[in-house]
Amino acid sequence: MAGSWGCPHEVADRCTKINNLPCNPGMKGCELAGRYRFVDESKNERYWEKKAREQAAKPHSKDTDA
């Protein structure tokens, strides 16, 4: 995989973290899944779940500007 970063789990275009499957950034089990958004929306499910949990955990404040 070409790019300006290198994944420590990628060896010879295979993911050593996920059963030596072909490297596909953002796939289920990938270290990047849920941390970043991808152009392929099918890889963003964990990202949106994480954002929803963060929003639910934030204290709700009412806007009281007069």
Question: Which properties best describe this structure?
Answer:
3 strands, alpha+beta
For the record, give the distance between the C-alpha atoms at the N and C termini, rounded to a whole number.
54 Å
Low-confidence stretches: none
Number of domains: 1
The H-and-E topology, N to C, reads as EEEH
Main pleated sheet: 3 strands, antiparallel
Q: Biggest sheet, strands in spatial order?
A: 1-2-3
- What is the gyration radius calculated from CA atoms? 17 Å
Number of strands: 3
Percent of residues in β-strands: 5-15%
Question: What share of residues is helical?
Answer: 10-25%
Class from helix and strand fractions: alpha+beta
**Which word captures the global form?**
elongated
Question: Would you mind describing this structure in some detail?
Answer:
This protein is an alpha+beta fold. The protein has one domain (10-57). 20% of the residues lie in helices and 9% in strands. It has one helix at 45-57, and strands at 10-11, 14-15, 21-22. Strands 1-2-3 form a three-stranded antiparallel beta sheet, with no helix packed on it. The mean pLDDT is 81.
